[in-house]
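Encoded backbone
================
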Amino acid sequence: PGEKNMGDIENMDKTKQKNRAMLNIEPREVSVRRESELYRANKTKAAKISRIEYEEYMDRDYGRSKSKQSGYAEHRTWRSINSNRENEKKLKTSLPVTTSVTAPMTAENLGQLFNTSSDIPAPMVVLSAQQFYTLLTENENSEMNGIIDNKNKNNVPISELGNVLVTADSLSTLDDKMYVSGDVISLYAKLINRRIEKRKTKSVNTQHEIKMTNTYFYPTLEKSVANGNFDRVLKWLPKVDIPDLYALEQLLIPVHLIRGKHWVLAVIDLKTKKIILYDSMACLNSIDRQKVGENLFRFVQEHRKASGLFNNSLEWDIVNLAPNTPQQPNHFDCGVYVILFADYLSAQRVFDFHNVSMETYRQRIRYEIVTQKLFHD
């Protein structure tokens, strides 16, 4: 940047700099230098785009072509974990925030200011992505393709488990750069629950009590909150293999944010009394995530009432964004990240999505859906 850029900065913030100098907050030449350095670092109007403006921009522009979306995401995504540009200046990620709410719910406790928090239960096992997910072998590829061909010939769903069906069309959403369908996530939830039950029969002492709902659970819960009638969602719990919520340590809930066309994973941690949101696009959806947290708190509150466990001193924290959540570098991998979040959390693995490409994850998930065998079953 030369004199022209310095002039741009002076014109852009002239009033602000003058006011700060008059108030003896900062000498004008220091203010100009500070603004110029910020301009050079971010190469964007001195990084003056507010988060609200950024969300509105993305919502408005979400329907453009894939090539433009992909390019924008690469340049703008906060904490872009896969960028190889040595000198790229990354914009700051929103901090993990916690809202404490105390039953009974009131308008006041839902409007509390956020506080930073990192007090999230830590997984117990450290295992790298290379160990946790590997490329399919030739035999695995042959097995998967044989099943798919046979199912297609007989004109039946590719995979069926309980009341969840994955058709050829749904399975195709695991192709590269595709939005993963809710049916794929729901069937994967079934596989996770089955794996947990298998391990439970082998060793009760080491069992991590956790369940995952299908993708239809949260929309039903959301309607219950809207109409104030929780009977349907409470009766639905046994139907999704959750006869006793309070026998669990954690309940994993995939959530589709309609406004943002985006998947996130919500976790009700009954052991630590926290509602935790895992979002692979941290720079967006903050308001939507907070609403999800509030709805889930209402659900917990109503469930306690129905169970005769209601206590006015019940306190829960809503963690709007779990710290150190891996971030996607594009606009289409959110469903894959939700599956990975659930798989790693249910297996008590530390997140490590940096070393393996999304194509590898998608290929492995496709194999697991088709064969109904998880990699670590």
